[in-house]
Amino acid sequence: MFGLEAIDLARIQFAFTISFHIIFPAITIGLASYLAVLEGLWLKTEQPVYRDLYHFWSKIFAVNFGMGVVSGLVMAYQFGTNWSAFSDFAGAVTGPLLTYEVLTAFFLEAGFLGVMLFGWNRVGPGLHFFSTLMVAVGTLISTFWILASNSWMQTPQGFEIVDGRVIPVDWLAVIFNPSFPYRLLHMATAAFLATAFFVGASAAWHLLRGRDNPAVRKMLSMAMWMALIVAPVQAVIGDFHGLNTLEHQPAKIAAIEGHWENPPGEATPLILFGWPDMEREETRFKVEIPKLGSLILTHSLDKQVPALKEFPKEDRPNSTIVFWSFRIMVGLGLLMILMGGWALLLRMRGKLFENRAFLNMALWMGPSGLIAILAGWFTTEVGRQPWVVYGLMRTADAASDHSVGHMSLTLILFVVVYFALFGVGLGYMMRLVRKGPVVGEGSQASDGGPGQKRTPSRPLSAASEDMDATDSQTERT
Amino acid sequence: MGIDLSLIWAIIIAFGVMMYVVMDGFDLGIGILFPFIKDKSERDVMMNTVAPVWDGNETWLVLGGAALFGAFPLAYAVVLDALYLPLIFMLLGLIFRGVAFEFRFKAKADKQHIWDKAFIGGSLTATFFQGVTLGAYIDGIPVVNRTYAGAALDWLTPFSLFCGVALIAAYALLGCTWLIMKTEGRLQQHMHDMARPLVFVVLAVTGIVSLWTPLAHAEIAHRWFSLPNLFWFLPVPGLVVLCTWALLRAVRNNANYAPFLLTLTLIFLGYSGLGISLWPNIIPPSVTIWDAASPPQSQAFILVGALFIIPFILMYTAWSYYVFRGKVTAEDGYH
């Protein structure tokens, strides 16, 4: 298909299914913690606005969670179907980490999700809050395991190789491998930020249409506090993550910087824009600032940053892709910081909820966090190439031996089915968002839930709205 | 080494797959029976009988996959590689069905038929390819140097296709008897009428698979028919005959619970028969659970989590079925 080889198709297929999947867990992680904060504030202040917001977002959380479970089903099998050589080689390490991720997710679903979604006014407020907290913690524990597995593939340690296969010797070393703490912090924070901008955009949408109520205002306000405080923190975490990558995966940094060679005695410039050309071994059309690369990455004005030509050709990641995916991520991050500052200025002037230019910007920034997450993952995963387990196994040796025809067929099927079905799912989520928070929602018990006879208990049944509701139903001010 | 971790994990995974087959079996069966019931409110009732539990049923499939990866990475790699296409088709069928399940309840009446078709199509596709996967697995997977050594379409054999059809019949019977237990009135009567022919179909396909397997595989024939094995294993087919007889009687007497429980027993016996045929191989016909095991420190590491969490999942599962006991009528809404 399009002159691609089976290995390329295998990579595209994995990238496609995991990219689709990651959107849902990222929002799940962020919303779970947001809901815990909302419920905590409701219990503490007893302001109804927090309770209304809790009920509004818990329905969206439920639909999103359901989509995550369904799209995750495929991920549990993709390693074996598409990457069988990798699964055999590294399964003794990555297999157990994935098993723990699944066990944690089930534990959370089995135990606390039902109470959280359906137990309002049925169980005591303390127990309900505890359930929400456990769901939030559970999503973070799931993140913990899956990132331990991914980070180990980036910076493997705590193992030995026996008969050509990885054998774990020290689980603590495996889990807490060098890149893990940075990646975990970076991803969890990214999930929080992505959710904050999603929530902020929802509020902006309602305000732009004149649907103003205390809950909508509170949503925007909370989202922009997050942007103000957490976006700069994320930049700092990202900087540390970058320094860690420089230490353990210098070729990735060279590719991100589009930096090809180090003339003796010359500090590394920072290339702002350009087009890294893998064939010509240079970055064309570049706009650069002298010495800034050294300053950012080595925190000095004379030390050099590793250059791509220092690595054999077959060991270089694709600089064209990671150069740009990295800049998309950083660019969006800078916009987020800007939004936080702008919101603070407007807030001090009392115009946060009226400034249309700002609200429009907030609306457009809605998907920014998710796009930044995808761009970041492309940077770190493409930047790991040509290795699947860094320094140990090449991606080309990791794949199952499927033909181009088979890989094309399954890829097309995945694309069609995912867009059709998850498109409907996302559309339904957007419909719930457009409905907006309802004042007084949640003063009664939710209908359904485990523990009650004859009631629903699946995540998606927490949202009862008609998916083809006409706009007249959503026209509510 | 006192504790055989591989054996423990083989039992856990076999148990998980069993849970999956039994529980997703009847809710896939409901999708298979959907075309035979045209009435909208009866279709609603059918779906409502599994609505509160179906997604929990599917979690066992994810657990099975993840546990196989952790405990037997070689089997995970080779079996999933060899059965690539049927597995992908099965997963796509399950996704279709899962999403249809949710959105059918939320769709307007005039769009519901689209989700009905997705539900039927997804259930049939998932079941058929699950059966094909099973058939190809029994047929055996050649392994050389720890990788799959067969061709891409080796799974496509008359036997595996027949297993696909057989599983559709088996899940239909499970769904049918589940509905007998969970419904009343016209729908239940309809299911009672369908149960009898379905039992005969299931008996026929089970018989064919049971004969075809040893005829095609000498080592499986040897496992069953050599002495003294024959005497040890004779109760299995004996119980199948007894169970079928009791099942037909229960259906004739319009019993409520017995048909489902007896069908479960039948499925369990079939599963045991499969276990007898394949033991101790995890990649038939030659790779054993010990050959495919991950190192003890990996198996022990995940066993800690599994022993803590699986009982919890089981308790929750039992509780949600208990809460949901009794008949479902058109007045109940679970969506």
UniProtKB/TrEMBL annotation, chain B:
Chain segments annotated as transmembrane: 6-37, 84-105, 117-138, 158-181, 197-218, 230-248, 260-280, 300-324
Phylogenetic lineage: Bacteria, Pseudomonadati, Pseudomonadota, Gammaproteobacteria, Pseudomonadales
Record bears the keyword Membrane: yes
Keywords: Cell membrane, Membrane, Transmembrane, Transmembrane helix
Organism of derivation: Pseudomonas marincola
Span of the signal peptide: none
GO cellular component: cytochrome complex; plasma membrane
Membrane topology: Multi-pass membrane protein
Locations listed in the record: Cell membrane
One Gene Ontology MF term: oxidoreductase activity, acting on diphenols and related substances as donors, oxygen as acceptor
Designated name of the protein: Ubiquinol oxidase subunit II, cyanide insensitive
InterPro entries per UniProt: Cyt-d_oxidase_su2
Coiled-coil features, chain-numbered ranges: none
Source superkingdom: Bacteria
First-listed, main subcellular location of the protein, grouped into a coarse class: membrane
Entry's Gene Ontology BP terms: aerobic electron transport chain
Family, as annotated: Belongs to the cytochrome ubiquinol oxidase subunit 2 family.
Pfam families linked to this entry: Cyt_bd_oxida_II
